[in-house]
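subagent[fold] <- orchestrator: predict structure for attached chain, return tokens only, no commentary.
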Amino acid sequence: MSVHQSTHLKRITTHILQEMKKRKEKISMLTAYDFSMAGIVDGAGIDMILVGDSASNVMAGHETTLPITLDQMIYHATAVVRAVERALVVVDIPFGSYQGNSSEALRSAIRIMKESGAHAVKVEGGAEIKESVVRILSAGVPVMGHLGLTPQSIYKFGTYTVRAREKEEAGKLLEDAKILEECGCFALVLEKIPAKLAKKVAELVTIPVIGIGAGPDVDGQVLVLHDMLGITQEFQPRFLRQYADIRSTMHEAVSNYIKDVKAKDFPNEKESY
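subagent[fold] -> orchestrator:
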């Protein structure tokens, strides 16, 4: 009997992520919201792609993540999944689609999985969303948690400053991390919290902990693609390392195109039929 040998890289699964934590191999994660960018990110070898509700900011121009809808998240996720061959694709369940109603949470998660083909969903919060997390997991849908700065709760906190600096809030974060692990979450994002606390969480739980503004002693890192590529330049938090200046490159290219069109240099004879 012949055995088909696939030329593709092995697809990342939740089990592989768990093994990476065990052997202390760092996990890489970036956001993506469309087919073209997702293909580039996946082709570069990223471990996880987050179809984040940050699309509300970087793709639609909203001030917060709150306005984006479930239908819009599914649209972005579907485009990303079409491009991805290796990475694990995680999709944010948007604000208002899971909080306070576990039945609605389950419906939202199932819609994302069925309609987009994604591999997992992500939710923000701890004990207060436990019922929704358990309900989603009961259907076999992998769930990633998110603690610390939770952008969907921005109007509750009123600021994007570092979370869990005080003893009481830090204690609750540690408790919430354990609750999410015990519920069955496969991984956890920690956003904008003290590095020492993030290290404590990563040591406390057996599931992978992915940081964004949470220091180096977690199991992996995530950034918003448009931020790290320098496409969005208004957002310059301390935790962001900008790996390119794509905005300037694109500006120069468009300016040169305009100049060539105005000068009747484009298209030239070789570029015409």
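orchestrator: received. Logging for downstream: The chain has a mean pLDDT of 94. The longest strand covers residues 143-148.
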